[in-house]
Every structure is written in C-alpha cells, then in structure tokens.
Amino acid sequence: MVDQLPQPLLKWLEVVRPEHRDLLARLHELLMSVEPQFTISLKWRNPAYSLDGQTFLYLADQAEYVRLGFYNGAQFDDPLGLVEGTGKRLRHIKVTSLDAEIEPKLRQAVAASLAAGSEY
Is residue 33 helix, strand or coil? Predict the structure, then answer.
C-alpha cells in the first residue's frame, strides 16, 4: 500500500516515526476514498488535502498519535465529539488506530468538513 502513495506523501513518510507509517498511509487512503479529487501538497512540512483550491485537512505525526487536522474544524458540527482544540479555525482528531469502530466516525468528520467549506 505504501509504495502506491503520491510522491509528496512518500517523501514525508520517510521522515515520520516508523511505527506510524502504516496508520498514516491508511488514513490517506480513507481521505481519498471520501474525496477522490483531493490534491496533496506539503504545507508546514505535513501533507495537506485540498479540493478546488481550498485546503481542508492535514495529517501530522505526533509522539503518541497521528493527528487528523481540520483547517475548518471550528466551522462544522461534531455530534460524535471527536474533534478537539480551541483554535479560531483549526481543530484535530487524535488517531491511534484505524479499526471498524473509528473508521466510519472519521469518514463522517471528513464529510462534515467538506460540507462546511474552507477559508484556506
């Protein structure tokens, strides 16, 4: 799976914690399955996911978890209570695994982000 990723993501995965590489690759696949038209670029040294010129999401490797970040996290409803943070716009979800329980919840959060639009 990892070798089929886009070049910016492959380059980034070379420098993240080895124990998080598979989870990050799986999160990328999840994001692309929700919105296949995402374009990926590196912003602030992390992969950012944009659609029609608007940046919606990013992935970040943290010591204890992987961050699924939302540039518009303060702009959409989170009925599941997964999204954390207090920034003016940015919010995130701390992801430690991607199993059958969390995957649909992450999909719902990503869909909510896309539906809300983005100012970035």
Answer: helix
Residue type, 18: P
Contact 97, 26 (CB under 8 A): no
Full residue range of the structural domain in which residue 94 is found = 2-116
First CA to last CA across the chain, in angstroms? 30
CATH code, domain carrying 89: 3.90.1150.200
Whether the Cβ atoms of residue 49 and residue 57 lie closer than 8 Å to each other: yes
- Among residues 35, 53, 40, the alpha carbon closest in space to that of 5 is found at 40
d(CA 10, CA 54): 22
Q: Evaluate if pTM is beyond 0.85.
A: yes
- pLDDT tens digits, residue range 82-103? 999 998 999 999 999 999 999 9
2-55: per-residue pLDDT in tens?
A: 556 677 777 788 888 889 989 999 999 999 999 999 999 888 889 999 999 999
The interaxial angle of helices 21-34 and 103-116, nearest 10 deg, is 50
The structural domain count of the chain equals 1
